[in-house]
Amino acid sequence: xxxxxxxxxxxxxxxxxxxxxxxxxxxxxxxxxxxxxxxxxxxxxxxxxxxxxxxxxxxxxxxxxxxxxxxxxxxxxxxxxxxxxxxxxxxxxxxxxxxxxxxxxxxxxxxxxxxxxxxxxxxxxxxxxxxxxxxxxxxxxxxxxxxxxxxxxxxxxxxxxxxxxxxxxxxxxxxxxxxxxxxxxxxxxxxxxxxxxxxxxxxxxxxxxxxxxxxxxxxxxxxxxxxxxxxxxxxxxxxxxxxxxxxxxxxxxxxxxxxxxx
Length: 262
Fold this sequence. Notes:
Blueprint: E1 2-7, E2 23-28, H1 45-51, E3 59-64, E4 66-69, E5 74-79, H2 89-95, E6 103-108, E7 119-125, H3 129-138, E8 144-151, E9 173-180, H4 187-193, E10 201-208, H5 209-223, E11 231-237, H6 243-261
């Protein structure tokens, strides 16, 4: 992963953003396509969709925005680098240099650690690691946190403490378990077999959509008996799909589940 620090003259949009999973939309122009309003931030995506053919529309990718500092005008974004040169955001981050610019829309978000919870369960793969980092940084020193992270292999295991902002430390009672995808370890097996601490839990569970929505969510809501207010759970990506295709999948899932509830 690579952390890229950004600076803006105006981060006022973050003034009321207190979510650990705060996210932004990064807008990447297609090579050779000039986008009116891109440089000054006045880009109108609805107008672009009306006037440009699909192949000329910019690519939009969603990322967690870390540690916005309104006074300094800075924030950080962590990118997963796949090493194959494919995709949009990863290659941009791999070659980013001081002076490069990027149009960012946002922020959004919905989750912050519940201070009344007896303990916190944070389950994620690489895509949600930044949000887990932000959640841990937002917890008081005496919080209890159990973190389960899935990485590609042992040599890709993240150093969670190193990702915290300067001057921050992990809550004292924090246990981090890192799994290896290459070794066949899964989030579901680990969460199913883990010790369940006493008292109400607040869970943040995000990652690959099939693993999160079809495996972990039923386990937490049915077998563990959590109610929806105790769980922030959603897919951040879908294996085999770009973000555009993933949006279509999420919409179809929401429609299907809405029909089932009716």
